[in-house]
Amino acid sequence: MVANDPASCNLTDDTAFTILVSTKPTAAFSFLPLQPQENVYTQFSNQSTGATNYIWNFGDGDTSQQVNPRHIFPATGTFNVCLTAINQYGCADTTCQDVKSIIKALMDVPNAFTPGKFGVNSTIGVEGFGIQAMEWTIYNRWGQKVFESNSKNVRWDGTFNGKGLPMDVYSYTLRVTFSDGTKATKTGDITLIR
Fold first, then answer.
1. What is the pLDDT of residue 65?
2. What is the pLDDT of residue 19?
3. Which of 36, 42, 57, 166 is the most buried (most CB within 10 A)?
4. Which long-range CB contacts under 8 A does 156-159 form with residues at least 24 apart?
């Protein structure tokens, strides 16, 4: 930029500033399986270019910031999945695709676990597909409630009031409402192994 002041002996001053213009990222993705399969996770493959961060919206209320997430939908249907690709300057691009899902309502609870150990069996939870709402309550042998949950994502770690419970058999009741409106009830035993 050059500034000229004709009112004061034509004094001239100039300055320069470099402006970096970033190219906009391009959001793109594919997914497998293309044809929905019953109770199977959908694996998403991010094919975006020029981006450093990603926001997935699966069209069912769930989101992810993973590069290549996998997701299982809560019900049978078609979900509009959107990916927003963002570059380091905050520029963004979004693309969406319809993804079909087939969910057969199922529920189960494992019958044993080993709290305090590492791995998948260190906690215990409700497993299943299409679970919309649930009430899961665990009791000790004297009928005292030691755990309850209303979410499939909340698992029991074998404690009660912050203290580890002894090795024993615990009973549970489980009431589930599935995404298709059907309801189911299950009772059973869980062996806590230390």
1. 97
2. 72
3. 42
4. 156/123, 156/124, 156/125, 157/115, 157/122, 157/123, 158/113, 158/115, 158/116, 158/123, 158/124, 158/192, 159/115
Give the three-state DSSP class for 84: strand
Per-residue confidence (pLDDT) for residue 39, from 0 to 100 = 95
Q: What is the DSSP letter of 119?
A: S
pLDDT at 174: 97
- 131 to 114, 173, 192: CA distances (angstroms): 25, 15, 25
> Which pair of structure tokens corresponds to residue 162?
């912050």
Structure tokens at 121: 């069996």
Question: Which residues in the chain come in under a pLDDT of 50?
Answer: none
Which amino acid, 176? V
Q: Which amino acid is at 148?
A: E
Sign of the alpha-carbon torsion through 111, 189, 175, 146: negative
CA–CA separation, 94 vs 177, rounded Å?
A: 34
Q: Which residue has the tokens 């004094």?
A: 11
